[in-house]
C-alpha cells in the first residue's frame, strides 16, 4: 500500500518582474497619500493629514497583499518525481545545489 506514494517537487518560478508592477502601484499609492497629507498639513487640524495617510494605507494594504499572494500562488509548480529519473538541478536554484564543504 505504501509503495505507490510518489515524491513531489515544488518549484517557485516567481521573479522580480512578476511583481514589479505591483511594487510600482504601491509606491504611487504611498506617494499620493503623502502628497495629500502635505496638502492637508496647512489645514487648521493637522490630525486630518495623519488620518488620511493611515486610511489610504489601511485600505490599500489588503488589495496589495491579495495581489501579491495570488501572484505567488500562481507561480508555484507541483510535479511528481519518478524514482527512476535522476533529479536534474535547475540553473540558479539554490535549494538543489550541493552544500559547500568547510575546510579546516
Order of helices and strands: EHHE
Give me the Rg, rounded: 23 Å
The count of helical stretches stands at: 2
Which residues sit in consecutive blocks of at least 5 with pLDDT less than 50? none
Please indicate the percent range of residues in DSSP E strands (runs of 2 or more).
Answer: 5-15%
- Most strands sheet: 2 strands, antiparallel
Helicity range:
40-55%
Strand order of the largest sheet: 1-2
Mean pLDDT: 79
> What distance lies between the first and last C-alpha atoms, to the nearest angstrom?
47 Å
- Please identify the structural class as seen in this structure: mainly alpha
Please state the overall shape, judged from the principal axes of the Cα atoms: elongated
Number of strands: 2
3D architecture notes:
The chain has 104 residues and is mainly alpha-helical. The protein has helices at 16-41, 47-74; strands at residues 7-12, 76-81. It is built from two helices and two strands. The protein has a two-stranded antiparallel ribbon with strand order 1-2. The longest helix has 28 residues, at 47-74. The chain starts with 6 loop residues before the first strand and ends in a 23-residue tail after the last strand.
Amino acid at each position: 500500500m505504501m509503495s505507490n506514494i510518489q515524491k513531489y517537487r515544488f518549484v517557485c518560478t516567481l521573479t522580480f518582474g512578476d511583481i514589479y508592477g505591483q511594487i510600482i502601484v504601491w509606491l504611487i499609492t504611498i506617494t499620493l497619500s503623502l502628497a495629500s497629507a502635505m496638502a492637508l498639513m496647512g489645514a487648521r487640524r493637522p490630525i486630518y493629514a495623519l488620518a488620511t495617510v493611515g486610511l489610504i494605507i489601511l485600505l490599500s494594504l489588503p488589495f496589495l497583499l491579495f495581489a501579491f499572494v495570488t501572484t505567488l500562488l500562481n507561480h508555484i509548480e507541483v510535479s511528481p518525481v519518478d524514482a527512476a529519473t535522476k533529479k536534474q538541478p535547475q540553473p540558479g536554484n539554490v535549494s538543489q545545489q550541493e552544500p559547500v564543504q568547510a575546510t579546516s
